[in-house]
Amino acid sequence: MAQFILNKTALRCNYEYLKTLFEKNNIQFAIVSKLLCGTKSFLKELVDLGVQEVADSRVTNLERIKKINPDIRTIYIKPPAKRSIRKIVQYADVSCNSELQTILWLNEEAKRQNKIHNVLIMIEMGDLREGVMGDDLMSFYASIFELEHIHVIGLGTNLNCLHGVMPSSDKLVQLGLYKQLIESKFGQKIEWVSGGTSVVLPLLFRQQIPASNNHFRIGETLYFGNNLFTGEIIPEMRNDVFRLKAEIIEITDKPKVPFGELATNPSGEQFSFEEEDYGQTVHRAIVDIGILDVNPDFLFPINPKIKIGAASSDMLVVEIPADPGYAIGSTIEFRVEYMAALRLLNSFYIEKIVVEDPS
Question: Does this entry carry the keyword Methyltransferase (predicted)?
Fold first, then answer.
């Protein structure tokens, strides 16, 4: 079984960097745990960092967080489905909302549970995923701010999540202006302006975040240490929080080009080859992981001499150097990007392991 490994030392390094950054800028932040897909051992490592808020798009994951530490504030970060209302009120201290009817259901359920449920109103700022249109915000707020069991804790937005619309100072200023308009018209305090996510961090580095934006929801940069504007690693952070190890189950020299009539494979791919590849052989290995578990496009061998070839549902073919260190039963290690980690963590067939840096 392939192993997906979390390095707790690297995770803590990245968390402490972000914590210091946000404290310096008087910003409250939640750690987004949805990438971890509810993996209990990994969630426990997150809680052990000392996080105060955890955000997730699966209510079952928030339930697990509450069981580990009931004092952590939990945030449900997508518009709730009707069938999930009861559990969201039970396990999420805050939920992100963009539909009036849903908030009315939350109010009814919060009354049944004798709770006040916090709502973060999501506003559409151009990426065209979830969010109330700006022109409708005042009437939307007017319909909910007096609900007995609902407290509007803030306004939020998501950018670069669907169509790739990038954040800008202008968009974040606009979000802050919505806060001012509501407070002026309704005499109500808006505690959070939650316009910050991992993709917004580069604006914070350049001091281009308006003071009104006082809440972030951070996931990808914690786990990968990356600057989502440049694609580079932030110098003070680490990109080795996650690693994949897969075992070699076959190793041999084989022709570089398949022989026989070629057709479309089960994944819908049809291969073509360069003329000079015919008659060539390569030293190659098969490892025990496939497209059922991961998209190979987001895998990168730690050894730069290894080249990823093709994959089927349960096996991945790689070209490897003729090195005595590679044999049946030995492992090949891969760096992973976000989309690879997401599928690996969601797979029942991958062993999840926690390690720390060697002393």
Answer: no
Q: Are 42 and 352 in contact (CB under 8 A)?
A: yes
Rounded to whole angstroms, the Cα distance separating 355 from 161 reads: 31
Structure tokens at 200: 């917004």
Give the per-residue pLDDT at 359.
56
Separation of alpha carbons 240 and 11, rounded Å: 8
* Tens digits of residue pLDDT in 92-120: 999 999 999 999 999 999 999 999 999 99
Rounded Cα gap, residues 105 and 283, in angstroms: 61
Average per-residue pLDDT for the chain? 94
Partners of 152 in beta bridges: 119
Q: How far apart are CA 53 and CA 31, in angstroms?
A: 6
In order of their start, the domains of the chain are 8-224 (3.20.20.10), 242-355 (2.40.37)
pLDDT digits (tens, 9 = 90+) for 230-273: 999 999 999 999 999 999 999 999 977 777 666 676 667 766 66
CA distance 234 to 59: 31
Active site residue 24: no
In angstroms, the CA 268 to CA 265 distance is 5
What is the rounded distance in angstroms from the CA atom of residue 148 to the CA atom of residue 146?
6
Backbone φ, ψ for residue 156 (5° rounding): -145, 170
Question: What would you report as the CA-atom Rg of the chain, rounded to the nearest whole angstrom?
Answer: 24
List 8, 19, 24, 34, catalytic entry:
34
What would you measure as the largest C-alpha separation in the chain, in angstroms? 78
What phi and psi values does residue 221 have, to the nearest 5 degrees? -65, -30
Per-residue pLDDT at 208 exceeds 60:
yes
DSSP annotation of 233 = B
- With residues binned 3-state (H G I as helix, E B as strand, rest as coil), the percentages for the chain, rounded to 5, are 35, 25, 40
Q: What are phi and psi of 279, to 5 degrees?
A: 85, -5
Instruction: State the pTM of this model.
Output: 0.94
SS3 label, residue 106 = helix
Tell me how far CA of residue 10 lies from CA of 34, 130, 226, 281, in angstroms.
19, 33, 13, 40
**DSSP 8-state symbol, 234:** P
